[in-house]
Amino acid sequence: MSFIDLRGHQIWHQEWSKRKAEPLLLLHGGLSSTQSFAPKILPSVKRTHHSYGYDRSAHGRTKIRKGFYHFNFQRDEAIAYIEDVIKKPTHIIGHSDGGIIGLMVAIARPDLVKSLVAIGANYHYDCGLKLQTFNGQVDEFEKDKFAQRTGQPRELLVEITAKAHKVWASEPKMTKGQLKKIQCSTLVLAGDDEPFSTEHTASLYEAIPNAQLAIIPGTSHAVLKEKPKLVRKI
Questions:
Q1: What is the enclosing helix (H) or strand (E) of 231?
Q2: pLDDT in tens, 82-112
Q3: Which of 8, 102, 177, 229 is close enough to 94 for a disulfide, judged by CB 3.0 to 4.6 Å?
């Protein structure tokens, strides 16, 4: 694990190597990090794939930069990482915002995506999402951890959180026509009690030509935490 220069910006990344294995990119969720997400997936893939993960701008240990939370920005950052670090087409597993970014990469650059697992991902903000208005309050302990982890002012976490909520209320804006352009094998996986509607998840699955659908009973957006063994088995 280390920082690398990605087209002029220092990002934190990690590899879990399986020599000569096919690459796999792990994309963490919003306001999360690779270190939080990867352990939930690695038990299923560490012996079969050369896995990669990075903290997106303003996430984990990677510092903030202009435009950091818009989904088009995050899509382009993922494409740059695949092109410059992985350097070949890759499998992708993404959760929440990471799943959204995986969908967007598969639409924009189908040549870079061999397969996709989108967990708890919506393709449009108008999805029945029960998004609470951000009240400007962030736990003081979380601010301290943020400052220690990134070396940035602790109050910057409030700005990042506010920006995330603003983007979630207006993005993403993928269409079913765009989703039909996804060429790779795709698994759409979600809990049966996501913050967005099951109908939205079903419409995502139906729009992608080569897709499969898995709805995990008795789970929420935290499906990876609630039923990890079942998810890894799928």
A1: helix 228-233
A2: 999 999 999 999 999 999 999 999 999 999 9
A3: 102
**Domain segments of the chain as ranges:** 2-233
Alpha helices in 57-181 (DSSP H): 71-81, 97-108, 140-150, 156-168, 176-179
Give phi and psi for 144, each to the nearest 5: -65, -45
* Predicted pLDDT at 152: 92
Q: Kind of pairing, strands 113-119 and 90-95?
A: parallel
User: Are the C-beta atoms of residues 111 and 104 closer than 8 Å to each other?
Assistant: no
**Of 205, 172, 208, nearest in space to 189 by CA:** 205
Mean pLDDT over all residues of the chain?
95
Please tell me the distance from the alpha carbon of residue 187 to that of residue 208, in angstroms, as a whole number. 10
Global confidence as pTM: 0.96
Residue 132 has pLDDT above 90, yes or no: no
26 forms beta bridges with 53, 93
CATH superfamily, with its number, for domain 2-233:
Alpha/Beta hydrolase fold, catalytic domain (3.40.50.1820)
The single residue listed with the structure tokens 């915002």 is: 97
- 161: its two tokens: 């959180």
